[in-house]
Amino acid sequence: MKYFKWPVCMALLISSxxxxxxxxxxxxxxxxGTHYVELQVPIKTRNPGKIEVMExxxxxxxxxxxxxxxxxxxxxxxxxxxxxKRTPAIWNRDYQVYAQTYYTAEALNVLEQSHAxxxxxxxxxxxxxxxxxxxxxxxxxxxVDAIDFAKTYSSFGVRASVQQADARGRAFRAxxxxxxxxxxxxRIEGGMAGNNANMLRIADFLIEKERTSMIxxxx
Length: 219
What we know:
Structural class: alpha+beta
Distance between the termini: 58 Å
Strand content: 5-15%
Radius of gyration: 18 Å
Number of strands: 5
Strand order of the largest sheet: 1-5-4-2-3
Number of helices: 9
Order of helices and strands: HEEHEHHHHHEEHH
Shape: globular
Helix content: 40-55%
């Protein structure tokens, strides 16, 4: 099996950047309409008892590839009241393949092992993986039989997950990826945030906003 690991020096740089992100977020007041958008119709989250952070992404997006290591380290610092989820974007044929592959990997219980290596294969190694047949060959590196991959890829459960992801994506009304949806209420995009680090600063601000709103008022 082949696994991609971020270099130690990269991890240290990311950790340092995250400390700066977290230190800055508490001291700045972000404004709706300027730094983030409040969704006109809130989206029901899967666990009302937790603050949901949803990444809207695609394996085909180079900006998502660049965002991935920073996002991964950031989300590892979440408290018990925050839950991280992903929704793949489905905007064209290639994105459809990537989205269906995401849910196939989830169904085969190899998503955690394959997520970063798949990004690296597409963007770092420039491998063409824009068909289910090519994806089946790639997942053999993770011990997945090509026939099992094909059956799961075309299964009812995976196709239903893709349809649900498409519906969520439409509700997000995002103009690009990566985007973050905070607790089904707020959308953060790079265009408004300015860069990936600012997206996380704004997300921290909105998570704290949601955390405060969930505290019962004293009688």
